[in-house]
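From: lab user (bench 3)
To: helpdesk
Subject: output format question, protein + zinc ion

Hello, I'm new to running complex predictions and I'm not sure whether the block I got back is the full result or only part of it. Here's what I submitted:
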Amino acid sequence: MTTPPSDRELLCESCGYVLTGSDSDGPCAECGVLVAESLASCRDGAIWQRQKSVLGHVRGLFAAVLRPGHESRRLIIRDGAMPTRLVANILIAAALLTGAFALAQPTAAGTFARSGVELGAIFASFIALLMVMTWIETRGVRLFGRQRAWRITPAVAWSVCTQASFGWIVGAAAALVVAPPLAPILGVVQDLPGADVLVPGRGPRNALALLILLPVLGFELLVYVGIRRCRFANRP
Ligand SMILES: [Zn+2]
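Helpdesk reply: Thanks, we reran it on our side. This is the complete output you should expect:
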């Protein structure tokens, strides 16, 4: 395990070679990519960083999902655990997931209503779950980076996970779409002998917990792309 250079060093964003002191008009001595392409000024911000409005946030979501590599390459590395935008995305994703559960679980009376208290508890649980999973991910990518001599500082880990948190929203929206048609099927599956070994407990409610895999998939895919584009990222 090699110690990565400090975040004050200018690294070649392509190969990780230390460029501090190199001619900014020349190429990287290791891989030949222009030094100018690794300057921190090349990271001019993902859309959600450049446009501080609700519309900018929505555009940032589409860009993060449709062009994750491009957006990660422009991501500005900033300090701060649990940045505001990350918390906002977690709240939105938790609300969508709560909606997925509410829609997918008709009450005995045949309506889709649930008690406000119960929905509130589910919403709070999803917020806590997504926050904890995001925090674990920041620790995980730093460990992963250390093993590969990548420079994944806390600032890089939190910036990448904030960008990737748009994946929580997209996955949760997918869960909201598939939950209602899936619920009756899961109910049938749950009634089969032995099904409760796979998902403990009875009824579609427990099987629906598997829907959390959709936002996890969305988030993890964006972290995967983001961390590779930011493994030698230079900060302002
Ligand atoms: Zn290089």
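A quick orientation on your result: The chain has two domains: 1-42, 45-229. Let us know if anything else is unclear.
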